[in-house]
Amino acid sequence: MWGSKKDRPKDGPEEEAPALQDNNSHDNHSTRSSARMNRERREPDERTSLLRENRRPPASDGYLDPDDPAVSPYNLWSVRFLRYFTVLFLMISFIWWVLLLVSIFVSPPGMHSRGSGFFDFAYTSLTIGNLLVAVIFFASPAKAMRVTTAIIAVLLLIDMVVILSIPRIRLEEGWVGIASVVWAFFIAVWCVLTDRVVAWGKREEEQRLTGRPETRRTVKEWLAVLAATILTVIFILITILMTSTLGIRARDSTLKMQGERIYVDGDKYQVHLACVGNASYTGGKKDPTILLEAGETPLEYDFEHWAYSAYQNGTISRFCYWDRPGYAWSDNAPSPHSAGMSADALSEALAKYGEEGPYILVSAGIGSIHSRIFSSRHIKVVTGLMLIDPMHEDLLHRISNPTRGFLLWGWGIISPLGIERLGGALFKGRTREDRVYGRNAYQSGKYIKAQLQENLVADSLSKNEVASARNIQDSSVPIVVVSSGIKCRTDKEWERKQEDLTKLTDNLVSWDVVNKAPHQVWQTYDGRTMMEKRLKALVKAASKVQVKSEVED
């Protein structure tokens, strides 16, 4: 029993209050469920919450923690689009890079560059570097990266203008080089814009999902930014060196030359050919023209000076000289390129130049291989051979050494940086003459490419060609051999092979070993004197053979 009314439990309306509250709560819950269901029916967009409301912590204000992995610029389709295309560009650049690498050794149809091809490869390598940095550090945009990549883009724009505006460089680089530098410039601009868009997307997503843009960076992000900046600064230095080397090439292209460039091999490339003196006649017969073939260095450096001195002294009345592909003013030939191909190029150039012979071939070092092949293919117009410390076909394996080939390839790859050429021009006073055909000609990408081509086929194609030439060489042609005393003393195999070369024909005029002369025999006074003396004797012997053959005919 209850003692009083006030002690009794409340009933009536007061007892129904909890039930009403329950009903209200049920209604509110139903309303929220309906709203949630409506939201779920709508297509999600970039403003759609990534976490369901009922998964939020009770005290949350509806925003994610800034360190939550869901806070990412990849949520935006525009950012994802840029990343997909960046990866696509990287794949395209890599395929192009492989093609350029292959073309150094074997020129694909339509991809031959009349220059070295190393600049094309360098620009594409730089492009791949920029794209790799963009892909690896895609989610860590930074102003430093944008600034450094923009500097690269400006330098590449300068390179593009130089290549397009300087006729000689434009011809040497061809469409392959132009396409490579244009692509490199485009990718540099693309990387700048991509980094800028990612930075915008990152800020947008942080503000949407955390309530404010994040100003902090984790240690990992700072390291990523630092690594990317260091790499792009290195790319800037590389591009500066390449731009400077292009400037050197533009300067060297203004150097005047004697003679002219002549298209050969189906107009694929040009070779330089020049002649000094006028045709003379003795007894109604045309005197032979001396045809010079360089050794391991461009002929104009000092070999041509000896020939010009012999011309002034009256020892010879006329001489012609040319630059093999890749040397001095001549373009590079397509790869592979053998000694026989060079001999054919010389033959075509002489024909287009209007030269008909007869010729006395004067060659040095490796050039003797080319002259011997030329002689065997032009028996009727070659009346004499003078070999100056010549290379024997059995020693071509020294030139084709794989280690030497790898070093040449590596030297060619870094040749666009022009470190030695720039240093020589800035600190040693090297001139255009030094770089085009003089003491520094070996630093040219064209020269390195020619040496690499020679290395690749010396002990195969070239050796087979010169072996065949020996079998069909006219045995009546007079021959002179002048050898280096220093080389013969220090290399007995070289000496034995020099003696063997005196037996190329049955008409040996003389074999002389100049005691203190190096491989470039003409660099000493005794060497030049002996060469001029033996050349005069060879001219007389060739005249006798020519008269004898005419009588027999």
TrEMBL record:
InterPro entries registered for this protein in UniProt: AB_hydrolase_fold, DUF2417
UniProt entry tagged with the keyword Transmembrane: yes
Domain of life: Eukaryota
Region annotation Disordered: where it falls in the sequence: 1-66
A Pfam family reported for this protein in Swiss-Prot or TrEMBL: DUF2417
Record keyword Phosphoprotein present: no
Segments passing through the bilayer: 84-106, 118-138, 150-169, 175-193, 222-248
Listed SUPFAM superfamilies: alpha/beta-Hydrolases (SSF53474)
Keyword annotations from UniProtKB, A to Z: Membrane, Transmembrane, Transmembrane helix
Biased composition annotated in UniProt, kind: Basic and acidic residues: 1-12, 37-58
Protein name per the record: Mitochondrial integral membrane protein-like protein
